[in-house]
Amino acid sequence: MIAELESLILDLKKNIEKLKEVNSKTNSENKELKQEINKLNNKIQLQENDNEELNNKYESLKLAKSIAVSSNDSHDAKIKINRLVREIDKCISLLNK
Fold first, then answer.
1. Cα–Cα distance for residue pair 30/22, rounded to 1 Å
2. Which of 32, 36, 52, 97 has the smallest set of CB atoms within 10 Å of its CB?
3. Would you list the domain boundaries of the chain?
C-alpha cells in the first residue's frame, strides 16, 4: 500500500512538472503574441496616418485643380457669362413691356 502511494505521489509530481512546463511555454507564447499584436497595432496606426495624409493631399489637389483654369477655359467662361447676362437682360426687357 505504501509503495502504491509513493508511486501515485511520483506520478503526481511528474504531472505537476509537466504542467509547469506547459504553463511556462504557454506564458512565453502569450508574451510573444502580445508583442506581435502591439507591433501590428503600431503598423496599423502608421498606415491610418499615411492614409489620412494621402486623403488630405488628394483633397488639396482636387481643390487646386478646380481653381486652376487655363486662359482658354477662362475665356470660354467669360463668353458663357456674357451670354447669360444678355439672356437675363432680354427677359427683363420683356417683363418691362
1. 12
2. 97
3. 2-96
